[in-house]
Amino acid sequence: MEERPITDWLPLTKKEVEKRGWDELDVILISGDAYVDHPSFGTAVIGRIMESEGLKVGIVAQPNWQDDLRDFKKLGKPKYFFGVTAGCMDSMVNHYTANRRLRSNDSYTPGGEAGFRPDYATTVYSNILKEIYPDVPVLIGGIEASLRRVTHYDYWADKLFPSVLIDSKADVLVYGMGEQPLREIIRGVKSGIPLTELTNINQVAFLQPKEAALLVVDSWETVELSSHEDCLVDKIKYAANFKIVEVESNKWQANRIIQQVGDQTLVINPPFKTMDEVEMDRSFDLPYTRLPHPKYRKRGPIPAFEMIKFSVNMHRGCFGGCSFCTISAHQGKFIASRSEKSIMKEVDQITKSPDFKGYISDLGGPSANMYKMRGKDESICARCSSPSCIHPVICSNLDTSHKPLTEIYKKVDAHPGIKKAFVGSGVRYDLLVDDFNKNNSDMNHDEYMEQLITRHVSGRLKVAPEHTSDATLRVMRKPSFKYFRKFKEKYDAISAKHGLKQPLIPYFISSHPGCEEVDMANLAAETKDLGFHLEQVQDFTPTPMTVAEVIYYTGVHPYTLQPIYTAKTKEEKQNQNKYFFWYKAEFKDWIRNRLTKLQRPDLAQRLLGFRNRNQKY
């Protein structure tokens, strides 16, 4: 294979900057991830957008924050600003399990090695830059900054933090997917306006003195949250704040949000409208090498890249609005889809990779089957403030046609360089159950399921019912488990018809707000009845800017302010988790004794059967 010139990647070293003939960089990006030049990695996307706008960009990937800080100095001082991101994950989620145990690996680091980024990476990096270069503005973004833009509960410290702008000392925060605000910011700084004065751009947040007047923008109304100090002493005010933030984040015509923090005012400008097809294509069609930077060659593969290198991301956003999930909070409720032409162009690129063997690992998105779904009458969407388009019922205005997706699958299948194209993303099964989704007028869901099951399942299909208790599912903003049963019947019938053995792999969560211990025992019994032996279980982690995090911290639902039970102690969480493994000998006596104590011998019988002198489980 002919080796690509190093200048095909954005520069990571001073030598690479000089090879391009540059003596100064316009922007330097600091990232908690290794640099992978691929559209699934945020730093690459941001860097390539800046490059497309004519800027000279360098990257400092996973700088050492514990030595003499030479990594932060190696590319010098940028002309316009530093851009800082913790990476593709919140650094605390990246570092710790739901039990607050330190993880031993990091999927965004060569060799999967842990320890190459700090806790609260956005804050640590920004503070270092402010110390070394006090006169250079710092712009923060990425999921960590985005979901910590207002007062938020931090599970790992077990306390409320103010906006990350306070602790990081950064000048401006971009929230959500950053392409649109970033292009506006670049145009502003190139025209000579300092970053700190670009306060009229959508989807940015910043701090200003408490006494300063708000900038007047004709189309913006302003809503004020309870102050950070009020939230510290009143959990109900914190819960009520969340509802405002979530509603405004999911509106087309949103309000500006302000919050008092000490002697400053946090200002969060309204988001941009969701990117259209042209904008999406523009972002994905930039000249990525689709490869990690060559400097990592001797350090081993980057697990996150290995997982997605032969995958195609077709859309962004999710209208599910699940209580525990951050996708809609960061990517938005409305779906932003790429064109078929852009998707097929990427498939072509993948087939030209020298180590490609003909298998696409995933044709998907945050939810595999939301491609091109949108409101039938978008004027209705423009007035909508609901956080979910499918809970408690599917909106009658939502076009849930799977036809465009089915056509993409067929075209990829027909590509001469493709042997198989799998769907590795989780499928939103409730969209495919006619009893739940009444919008299947031309039965295209059945055609999609036939295509999916017969052509695109790699051994097993991932779906996420998350729970079996209707009460818990309502808190989760998920449909009744009865719809999963109906989906399974349909899935099994199509599989049998074609002689296929491709098991469903359902995902469930333990210790979610609204889930009692008996609910977990019932979940174990119901899944046992369906023939599942669950091997992997996700224990609930309260991540910032989710409904479930607010319930965990405050004890009330932010929309009703009514109390909701949540397992919080280590013992409560472990008790819930054990029921998943009813088939393991070491848990059987505990389960029987525990359910007897909880006065539910019926569940013990369903899980274990009755025991007498001559009978073993």
UniProtKB/TrEMBL annotation:
Keywords attached to this entry: 4Fe-4S, Iron, Iron-sulfur, Metal-binding, S-adenosyl-L-methionine
Cofactor binding: number and manner: Binds 1 [4Fe-4S] cluster. The cluster is coordinated with 3 cysteines and an exchangeable S-adenosyl-L-methionine.
Signal peptide region: none
Residue ranges of every copy of the Radical SAM core domain listed in the record: 304-584
PROSITE patterns listed in its UniProt record: MTTASE_RADICAL, RADICAL_SAM
Binding site for [4Fe-4S] cluster: 318, 322, 325
Required co-factors: [4Fe-4S] cluster
Pfam families to which the protein is assigned, alphabetical: Radical_SAM_N
SMART domains linked to this entry: Elp3 (SM00729)
InterPro entries for this protein: Elp3/MiaA/NifB-like_rSAM (IPR006638), Methylthiotransferase_CS (IPR020612), rSAM (IPR007197), rSAM_horseshoe (IPR023404), rSAM_sf (IPR058240), UPF0313 (IPR022946), UPF0313_N (IPR013704)
Similarity comment: Belongs to the UPF0313 family.
HAMAP family: UPF0313
Protein name as it appears in the record: YgiQ family radical SAM protein
